[in-house]
Amino acid sequence: MLTLQYINENRDLVVERLKIKNFDASRIINEIVSVDEFRRTTQKNLDNNKAQLNTLSKEIGDLFKSGNHEEADVAKRKTTDLKEEIKELETKLREVEEHLNKLLVEIPNVPHESVPAGKSDTDNVIVREGGNPAKLISNPKPHWELAEQYDIIDFKLGTKITGAGFPVYKGQGARIQRALINFFLDEAQKAGFNEVLPPLMVNSDSGFGTGQLPDKEGQMYHVTIDDLYLVPTAEVPVTNIFRDVIVDEDDFPIKYTAYTPCFRREAGSYGKDVRGLNRLHQFDKVEIVCVEHPDRSYAMLDQMVSYVESLIQKLGLQYRILKLCGGDLSFTSALTFDFEVYSGAQEKWLEVSSVSNFESYQANRMKLRFKPNGEKKTQIAHTLNGSALALPRILAALLENNQTAEGIKVPEVLIPYTGFDMIR
Questions:
Q1: Would you say 356 and 335 are in contact if contact means Cβ atoms under 8 Å apart?
Q2: What is the pLDDT of residues 169-212, one digit of tens each?
Q3: Does an H or E element contain 339, and which?
């Protein structure tokens, strides 16, 4: 979330920039400033009363020592009144701080100055395109038909076992799924990302830290008895490794990667756009997460975008990179680039990755700080993350774009992982 200092120093800028996200912040910013002024006044009165109490306590001791018992008793009665006032002020301060925090949580992250205006994904800006269009056979089949033909993904069986959106990968389908995971992890390690294997459930503090709570609570699977949430992305547990942590400036950049299954309710999703692998409730994804110095976070964002682009290039897929407009930007992101690959048989673009800079927004919620060299005061770090990559739509595009009369060709980079070059 935004810091009070940033809001107080950039009040008009925050209101103006959040208009790009189609968020009218004027009312809530005014309320925050007003509540913060009241908090400051309350804190000042509390501090003054505590100082008076300390002074009186010392005077009482001196008065008793000198035999001035009557004056000492009068001073003791004053301390009793001060203690009651202090108790009331402490209660009032807790209440106003809770109210202030609730207001701060309602404000989205301020978008970067380069974020274009717009209301929906139709207003996103294409940054660049790459890869060659697939050379398709006549009458190419969509991946859900190919999955049935080659018996590699069973959507009906998944529905029987669990429900729609939980497919069962079989035979060569399971092996190519595992091949993609291992390929992405190996590439991430080559690029300097340290692999971790995090828990698949997180507590509410972790969900709050990265901004899933309270903003996306309805999209997560909630284990109510234990009050835990199934991870919607590895971003949540991996970034929370650094919750309440002070890192050294020399540690930057801190780069992690993780594979996890991901779980999303996707409430309200229906129709042709969710067929097959296009939108699932459980899917596999390799994530990259970075904690970086504020002065270098946008340079790191460029590096992460280039890295994800290299993965798609190695898989031989046609792709495009989009800069998200304000209306399509997430609540917590300052700047996001989406990657889409072209699905030949469906004749549509499929989103396969989002790479984002959250600046200090997540770090402030998590109290993730760093200590600059030679300084005592800490600063808030910047966090970034990206999908590298999400598997379902990558696999959908690979199956559709590489289908032949003899079978489905496996990309050359995956053959060492699959042990076969053709799905038959």
A1: yes
A2: 999 999 999 999 999 999 999 999 999 999 999 999 999 999 99
A3: strand 335-343
Give 64's pLDDT tier (boundaries 50, 70, 90). low
Pairing of strands 194-196, 254-263: parallel
- Smallest Cα–Cα separation from 13: which of 102, 92, 111? 111
Token pair of 136, please?
A: 């398709």
CB atoms within 10 A of CB 161: 11
Spatial contact of 95 and 102, defined as CB atoms under 8 Å apart:
no
3-class state of residue 112 by DSSP: coil
309, 276, 287, 353: CA torsion to nearest 10: 40
Tell which residue, 201, 266, 282, 257, has the closest CA to residue 387.
257
pLDDT digits (tens, 9 = 90+) for 145-157: 999 999 999 999 9
- Determine the 3-state secondary structure of 248 from DSSP: strand
Q: Among 56-70, 78-92, 312-326, which range has the highest average pLDDT?
A: 312-326
Note the pLDDT tens digit of each residue in 31-45. 999 999 999 999 999
- Cα–Cα distance measured from residue 196 to residue 138, given in angstroms and rounded to the nearest whole number: 44
232: nearest Cα among 383, 387, 338: 387
Six-digit token pair at 62?
A: 């001196």
Cis preceding linkage at 395, omega within 30: no
Using a CB cutoff of 8 Å and minimum separation of 24, what contacts does 230-233 make? 230/200, 230/201, 230/263, 231/198, 231/199, 231/200, 231/201, 231/202, 231/260, 231/262, 231/263, 232/262, 232/263, 232/264, 233/260, 233/262, 233/285, 233/287, 233/385, 233/387
Pair type for strands 348-357 and 228-230: unpaired
State the distance between the two ends of the chain, measured CA to CA, in whole angstroms: 51
Question: What is the distance between the alpha carbons of residues 405 and 424, in angstroms, rounded to a whole number?
Answer: 10
**b/e per residue 206-222 (b: at least 16 CB within 10 A):** bbbbbbbbebbeeebee
- Torsion-angle region of 68 (φ positive above 0: left; ψ -120 to 50: alpha; else: beta): beta
Residue type, position 65, single letter: K
